[in-house]
Amino acid sequence: MSFGETPSSNDAGGEGAAPDAHKPDELEFAALLCSRVCHDVISPVGAIVNGLEVLEEEEDDEMREHALLLIAKSALQASAKLQFARLAFGASGSAGAMIEVGDAIKAADGLLSGGRVTASWESKPGALHKTRLKLLMNVFQFALGAIPRGGDLKVIIEDGNEGMMVVATGTKARIPEHADLAQGEKLSSLPDSRAVQPYLIGLLCRAVHAKLSVAQAMEEGPVTFTITYGPDAELPDGMIG
């Protein structure tokens, strides 16, 4: 099995670094990633603003009560999306930090709250290195694209270098768009904002010497996202993760 290429010294950029014809522009990627995060939170934030406007203009008690409920619900949604984004896209903790799997479960449950998807978790380690956790969180969110009509995500985390898996089951399940990019396919530019997360998954896989495989045994059947580690993968500071 061929695992992702180890980034060369030129990949970090800097003066004298050779341009990579198979790599999107870093500023383009950063801009699209920011747009992705903003897109995820703009709807609940906009609903909060609408609710505040109703409170300011309305005197009807029933309308004001509806506005307060809207504000409360939207604030919880915005908070949940931001907490998930912090783990999936942010720099959580210091270098070498381990993050509790329970924190990931809490963030994932918040993201799914009130929606049509449920999640179940089977985790042997109690914590993961933050980069491995970041990879898992992105694969988890990417897997939602496999069950647009709702369903279930089953997450399995093994010890050490034994890997991780997300299984998406639901009506008319399908392999999500840009899965080839998440599995390491190279390209010179990102076609649209939907390609940002799968591209990031590819980067994270290379960072931890892992490979993602996306498979569907039968049409509309479960879609399996399997993360396996290459021979060069190391556990930080001898810790399980």
Describe, in plain words, how this protein is organized in 3D:
The chain has helices at residues 26-57, 61-89, 101-112, 130-143, 179-182, 196-207, and strands at 98-100, 117-123, 127-129, 151-157, 164-170, 210-216, 223-229. By secondary structure, it is an alpha+beta fold. The protein has a single domain (26-229), classed as Heat Shock Protein 90. The radius of gyration is 20 Å and the shape is globular. The two termini are 22 Å apart. It holds the Pfam family HPTransfase. InterPro entries: ChpT_C, HATPase_C_sf. Residues 1-11 have a biased composition (Polar residues).
Span between termini = 22 Å
Q: What name is given to the CATH topology?
A: Heat Shock Protein 90
Measured as a percent range, the helix fraction is: 40-55%
Q: Give me the number of helical elements.
A: 6
- Which structural class do the helices and strands define? alpha+beta
Mean pLDDT: 86
What is the radius of gyration computed over CA atoms, rounded to a whole number of angstroms?
20 Å
Number of discrete domains: 1
Which CATH class is shown? Alpha Beta
Characterize the biggest β-sheet. Answer: 5 strands, mixed
Tell me the number of strands.
7
Order of helices and strands: HHEHEEHEEHHEE
| Spatial order of strands in the largest sheet | 2-4-5-7-6
Low-confidence sequence ranges: 1-19, 237-241
| Strand percent estimate | 15-25%
User: What is the fourth-level CATH superfamily?
Assistant: Histidine kinase-like ATPase, C-terminal domain
Shape summary: globular
**CATH architecture heading:** 2-Layer Sandwich
